[in-house]
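call fold(seq) -> tokens
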Amino acid sequence: MIPSEIETEHLWLRPFKADDAAAVLSYWQSDPAWERFNASVPRGFGMPDAEEFVKEICGSDRQRSPSWALVGTGFIRDR
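ret:
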């Protein structure tokens, strides 16, 4: 069984939430070279792409295909 969250002193992994799209876009745009390592992100990506990415992840079966939002790195902060 996949845990709902994983938290240590320096790291918090949690499921994505619908309002994470802006943070995802910020991460995608933080390093232009990053997109070459992720074929699922379209070239010229924007907010609609980030929203669709988060929507797909939020609607997926976490037990079969878990995805995590990394909190505390400056991109997604909600604690």
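The beta strands are 6-7, 12-14, 69-71.
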